[in-house]
Amino acid sequence: VILTQANGVTAAELRAWVNQRVAARYQRLHDVVILDEFPRSVIGKTLKRVLREPYWAEQGKRI
């Protein structure tokens, strides 16, 4: 998540807010990461691979 204004919202508060508003349990958030900006390529595309690397580093195996 990229916050547009630094109004003191924490990852835990954001996760709780979203989880109160989704209908199904499978839609609930487990983790929220707040970043200053998304990693971008030279042409400006979001580098999803770079965003996923910290998650997969913590997992025992990859799908």
Descriptive notes:
The chain is an all-alpha fold and 63 residues long. It has one domain (11-58). It is built from 2 helices and no strands. The protein has helices at residues 11-21, 48-58.
How do the strands and helices of this protein lay out in sequence?
Blueprint: H1 11-21, H2 48-58
Q: Ranges with pLDDT <50 over ≥5 residues? A: none
- Our count of domains comes out at 1
Structural class assignment: mainly alpha
User: What value does the average pLDDT take?
Assistant: 86
Strand content: under 5%
**How much helical structure, as a percent, in the residues?**
25-40%
Name the helix and strand elements from N-terminus to C-terminus, one letter apiece.
HH
Query: What composes the largest sheet?
Result: none
- Report the C-alpha radius of gyration, rounded: 14 Å
Shape assignment:
globular
N/C terminus separation: 24 Å
Total helix count?
A: 2
Keywords:
63 residues, mainly alpha, 2 helices, globular
Quick rundown:
With 63 residues, the chain is mainly α. Helix content is 35%, strand content 0%.
